[in-house]
Design a protein that fits this description.
Length: about 150
């Protein structure tokens, strides 16, 4: 997991060969004006989900993890709380892995919660448990998906 500010995103260009496209997309767009939905940047290897989510509490957000994709999560409209659990600390899954959606869910609460402010981003690598979009009033955010 990585937590940092968007102005330092270039420091993480080595995460993937597709990071140059991610950086160009972020620098070339007004992130707050993007319409909800999926924006394809490089087929199924790189795309952006612009999400609008209702208010949720820690208890309402299940822990999730991915196998094929890196998540870069960017709050756009408000600060957001995100939970984190290291892969080695995850309990047994509460649902089977869905290859179509590249997600597996786990029961319980996260070990750690982070306050992710507007202007920041979080990178969750495959296998890392996370519980995103915990907010009091809902949120508009970007989830950039990079296939390994």
């Amino acid at each position: 997991m990585i937590l940092d500010t968007l102005d330092r995103l270039k420091a993480y260009a080595s995460i993937s060969p597709l990071m140059e496209k991610v950086i160009a997309f972020i620098e070339g767009n007004d992130l707050g004006s993007l319409e909800p939905g999926k924006i394809v940047l490089d087929g199924e290897d790189l795309f952006v989900n612009v999400n609008v989510q209702e208010a949720q509490t820690r208890a309402e957000v299940p822990i999730e993890a991915h196998v094929k994709y890196i998540d870069i999560q960017i709050p756009v409209s408000a600060d957001e709380e995100m939970g984190y659990v290291a892969e080695s600390m995850l309990p047994a899954p509460s649902q089977q892995y869905s290859p179509e959606k590249d997600v597996v869910f786990y029961p319980g609460l996260c070990d750690t919660y982070l306050n992710v402010r507007k202007g920041m981003f979080v990178v969750f690598f495959p296998g890392e448990g996370h519980a995103p979009a915990i907010t009091e009033n809902g949120i508009r955010k970007l989830v950039i998906k990079i296939r390994l």
